[in-house]
Design a protein that fits this description.
- There is one protein chain.
- This protein is an alpha+beta fold and 279 residues long.
- It folds into two domains: 30 residues; 224 residues, Bactericidal permeability-increasing protein, domain 1.
- It has six helices and eight strands.
- Strands 1, 2, 3, 4, 5, 6, 7 and 8 form an eight-stranded antiparallel beta sheet that branches.
- Helix 1 runs parallel beside helix 5.
- Bound molecules: 2-acetamido-2-deoxy-beta-D-glucopyranose (3 copies).
- InterPro entries: Haemolymph_juvenile_hormone-bd, To_sf.
- One of its GO terms (biological process) is circadian rhythm.
């Protein structure tokens, strides 16, 4: 299962990176810019001073608050932060006990990121990767789906509208970066993200889950999934994790291309100081 998911995942990331390159190419004339002055909304911290994690947690919260208000360069590329429009998702899981699912999601809209609470932001002094603890009271994803497979022994083949609603979502976000220099500043190149998720409740609804064969069976199946949501979530987990990873990768990659790492961590080393080679 994991291998399949990872393969799909890395394909998505390649598509994503290609997407970014294309967008940047198109926008080159107007937005080669990055911030050369620290924006007023962003308090910076020193990693070599005590209380850094507390300071950094506040900084990341301020960044999120500003994303909700709207950072023009980010809005230009992704549209509003909440509700957010997301890339189509192609998903394939073949070798799990609870599910064998092929699903395609389009017109994906995710709501809830404006209520993001940053609980902790830890930055590693060793490689400047970071681990962020995030809480969302509610996240909802709406999409058009096409699905084929079997979940909890129920064979499925359908397409239509679906939603997934998650309550009290705890996200542990692992971000890998590589430092580089640009215009006299040090920047984070966000190279990989991974999330670990917990929640108190998942509700879903898939319209037309048996290709319209019986409304009654459709209703009772959706009810069955909601009553057994923990098992159902296990089957859907890779789709949900991947959606959250895609969103966070996308946004962070853009934000850290725009805002020098020096404005977050004042005493960050240059890439040369950290890696010991000129790049
Ligand atoms: C998902 O889309 C791919 C590519 O367009 C297609 O090959 C596949 O059959 C689709 N899967 C489903 C379940 O519709
Ligand atoms: C989710 O719960 C597990 C088990 O209680 C825990 O180990 C993990 O750290 C939690 N993850 C998050 C994101 O809260
Ligand atoms: C960021 O890293 C990717 C590979 O992970 C690389 O292709 C890209 O050139 C890097 N960008 C910069 C600005 O260093």
């Amino acid at each position: 299962m994991w291998q399949t998911v990872k393969q799909v995942s890395s394909l998505c990331k390649i598509a994503l990176i290609c997407g970014l390159i294309v967008v940047n190419g198109v926008n080159e004339v107007t937005s080669v810019e990055f911030y050369t002055e620290k924006p007023a909304f962003l308090p910076s911290c020193k990693i070599n001073e005590p209380g850094f994690t507390k300071c950094s947690t506040n900084t990341v919260q301020k960044l999120i608050d500003q994303l909700v208000i709207g950072i023009p360069e980010v809005v230009k590329e992704f549209g509003p932060f909440d509700p957010m429009r997301v890339h189509d998702i192609y998903f394939k899981q073949d070798s799990s006990d609870v599910a064998r699912v092929h699903a395609n999601l389009s017109d994906v809209i995710v709501k809830g990121f404006s209520k993001t609470i940053i609980k902790e932001s830890r930055v590693s002094k060793k490689d400047y990767s970071w681990i962020t603890k995030i809480f969302l009271p509610k996240m909802r994803m709406d999409a058009n789906y096409k699905m084929e497979g079997r979940i909890l022994l129920i064979p499925l083949r359908g397409s239509g509208k679906m939603f997934i609603e998650i309550e009290n979502l705890d996200i542990k976000l692992y971000t890998k970066t590589r430092l580089y220099e640009k215009g006299g500043f040090t920047f984070d190149n966000v190279t990989a993200v991974r999330v670990d998720l917990n929640m108190t409740r998942v509700r879903t609804n898939f319209e037309n889950i048996f290709n319209g064969q019986s409304k009654e069976v459709e209703r009772s199946t959706n009810e069955f999934f909601n009553e057994n949501w923990r098992d159902f979530y296990e089957a859907l987990k890779p789709i949900i994790s991947e959606t959250v990873e895609t969103i966070l990768y996308d946004v962070m990659h853009k934000v850290f291309e725009l805002i020098p790492a020096n404005f977050f961590v004042e005493d960050i080393p240059t890439s040369e100081q950290l890696y010991g080679t000129k790049n």
